[in-house]
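User: quick one, fold this
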Amino acid sequence: MPIQRREFIAAIGTGALATTAGCSQIGGSNSQSDGESGGQAGVAGETLTLTTTTSTYDTGLLDEIHPDFEDMYGVSVDAVAQGTGAALESARNGDSDVVMVHARGLEDEFMRNGYGINRRDLMFNDFVIVGPESDPAGIQGMSSATEALNAIADSGAPFVSRGDNSGTHTKELNLWEAAGTDPGGDWYQETGTGMGEALNVANQQDAYTLSDRGTFISQRSEIDLVILVQGPIEDGPEILANPYGIMAVNPGVHDNANYDLAMAYIGWITSPGAQDAISSYQVNGEQLFFPEAVSEDPNFQQYVPEGWSSNSSDE
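Assistant:
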């Protein structure tokens, strides 16, 4: 489904609410006699461990929206910010209850291997190619991300890569592959760091880099880099789309995973209220993330890895 700018659905009927994961109560009845404490039965005082990509943390989004969930259930959320690869690895090792990342190929592998269940589309923004305003490779305004990368490589202008197996790094490598270029040499530097630090390094070296839009906006006032190639949010190429997904760690693999609380979190963050909070979150007057879970046109393929097929389709 093409990613494009859209208006958030502010009001959703109760029928649509029933399609979101989880519910408003855990381990308690739905009767009014439970009062406000009913929703906290069985989980109050517990901690949910969320491993997540650095962009959701560094932008301040999670600090902004998590208090609502924590107050609702009387719990705390320990958000561990890592690159997508590291976040999924932590979950594979049983060190996470729920995972929020942005690399569908790695998410699919995680699910195929049985580590993750109940995946949901969550939100999106996009990737942008940023660099010095002087733009020595002459890529400003290009409509093709791959042509822009080839221009950078041909010019030998410095390029900073995260080099950390994150969602952004995975996207960058896919773009180089699509461009038919194997990056390397003195002009190409891998930092092995999160997005914020990679932007700082690129800024110090007047270099180009690939960034998610949210992290770039959150740091733009502190660096001199500018967006030179836009993503699809600003009518740039669709290849720069950046969707985020969320999934619970499979308690059948790791019995220490807090599945009940993970599903409560997934139900909450994909609900209209939390999706509205995501849509409303801004830095310096700019929206960083766009809600995806509540949609007039839901994508039911979000629940299974790409390439899976039902036996019924062969009948």
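User: anything notable?
Assistant: The chain is about 30% helix and 20% strand.
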